[in-house]
Design brief:
Layout: H1 7-21, H2 31-38, H3 42-45, H4 47-63, H5 72-91, H6 103-116, H7 118-128, H8 135-164, H9 166-187, H10 199-204, H11 206-212, H12 214-242, H13 250-255, H14 260-275
Helix pairs in contact: 1-7, 1-8, 1-9, 4-6, 5-6, 5-7, 5-9, 7-8, 8-9
Length: about 280
């Protein structure tokens, strides 16, 4: 028997999704500060968001099927703990001499991105354990949490960098991940999902689906290219605004992310143009 998730549990998953995925973006306004602190070229530090993106895509592919195999409280808590550990590793680069250039930071961001994939798992968990007739609402709530995390992460990352420094900024996000891990361990369902397929079978079933369904293959390609373009635009913007003649501080750079509010505002209008019926946010 499946135990339904209360509304507080769905909101917890939205919080977890938002704070987890935020770690892929929060460092972007601080890239010039990180480069100056570690004494490495800005071009090398600019690869940190790329490493997070690569890690996140790997996490989606390899870790997402675990949502069908493990109890939500254990799965989410373990991944958030791993995320906190990776953030602490990145923040621990206090001695630049201990790191061969930016290599350790890039490796840490690969792990950060992979662990941040728990945000996608949170949506699946919300849908599976939602009460009857509430599945769409549960998934949409978690998706809203992810959107808020992506939208506000640069603003929070920039402001925290100016007030605390980039290492302490990462530690703040690590603390949020640990807080989410503790809440997940105690508040999410302890029931292990029933599955007729092994983890290996779930992974090997994915490539044939892409070959069999052209629409799925097209959606994967379009979504991947959109995600790549999104990250390329915002990283390039952050680096440009940090250099002369703009020379903006991380807080001001983070404020530019609020331009994404316009996208959220017009989303119902785009739905209305396709269906004739506006859908509320």
């Amino acid at each position: 028997m499946t135990h339904h998730l209360p509304r507080s549990g769905t909101l917890l998953l939205a919080f977890i999704a938002g704070t987890a995925i935020a770690n892929n973006y929060a460092v972007q306004p601080a890239l010039t500060a990180v480069a100056a602190d570690l004494g490495v070229p800005l071009s090398a530090i600019g690869l940190a968001p790329t490493a997070a993106l690569a890690g996140c895509m790997t996490g989606f592919a390899l870790l997402l099927p675990l949502a069908d195999r493990l109890a939500p409280n254990r799965l989410v808590a373990v991944q958030l703990t791993a995320l906190a550990a990776a953030l602490a590793l990145a923040a621990a680069l206090a001695l630049a001499a201990a790191a061969p250039g930016a290599a350790v930071l890039l490796a840490a961001y690969l792990l950060i991105g992979a662990a941040a994939g728990v945000a996608a798992q949170a949506g699946g968990i919300a849908g599976r354990y939602a009460p009857p007739g509430r599945r769409g609402t549960g998934v949409a709530t978690v998706a809203a949490g992810m959107s808020a995390g992506i939208l506000l992460s640069r603003l929070a990352g920039g402001a925290l960098t100016d007030s605390l420094g980039w290492r302490r900024m990462l530690l703040v996000f690590a603390a949020l991940a640990l807080l989410g891990a503790l809440a997940a361990a105690t508040r999410l369902p302890r029931q292990r999902p029933h599955s007729d397929h092994s983890y290996r079978a779930a992974l090997t079933a994915l490539p044939p689906l892409l070959r069999e369904f052209p629409d799925l293959r097209r959606a994967v390609v379009i979504g991947g290219l959109w995600y790549f373009a999104f990250n390329l635009l915002w990283v390039a913007l952050a680096l440009t605004l940090a250099e002369p003649p703009h020379s903006l501080d991380p807080t001001a750079i983070g404020l530019y992310s609020l331009a994404g509010l316009l996208g959220l505002a017009v989303l119902p209008l785009t739905d209305a143009s396709r269906t004739g019926t506006p859908r509320p946010l």
